[in-house]
Amino acid sequence: MPDTEECYRIIRQTRWPEGVICPYCGSKEVQKNGYTPKGAQKYHCKNCGKYFNDLTGTKVRKQDASSFLSLRI
Ligand SMILES: [Zn+2]
């Protein structure tokens, strides 16, 4: 079984090396807001009020998460 938590950790590190940034407004005023059923971290932007998660607006789709991980093994 792929370690999805590790996978999302890598995605976050790659996408936001200096901390989570809102994909809608670019603000760093972002609050953690639980997890999606697939295990991605959810966020709430305090600046624009929108919600997003680890995969929002990226080319990495949910179904690609496991293959993304397997590339590293
Ligand atoms: Zn925002």
Classify the secondary structure makeup into a structural class.
alpha+beta
Portion in beta strands: 15-25%
Indicate the percent of residues in helices.
Answer: 10-25%
Q: Provide the spatial order of strands within the biggest beta sheet.
A: 1-2-3
By DSSP (H or I, 4+ residues per run), the number of helices equals: 2
Low-confidence stretches: none
The N- and C-terminal alpha carbons lie at a distance of 12 Å
List the defining traits of the structure above.
73 residues; alpha+beta; binds zinc ion
Tell me briefly what this model is.
The protein has helices at residues 4-15, 65-70; strands at residues 30-35, 41-45, 51-53. With 73 residues, the protein is of the alpha+beta class.
Description:
- The chain has one domain (4-70).
- The protein has a three-stranded antiparallel β-sheet with strand order 1-2-3, with no helix packed on it.
- A hairpin with a 5-residue loop joins strand 1 (30-35) and strand 2 (41-45).
- The chain is built from two helices and three strands; from the N terminus they run αβββα.
- It has 73 residues and is of the alpha+beta class.
- It has helices at 4-15, 65-70, and strands spanning 30-35, 41-45, 51-53.
Topology, please?
Blueprint: H1 4-15, E1 30-35, E2 41-45, E3 51-53, H2 65-70
Antiparallel strand pairs: 1-2, 2-3
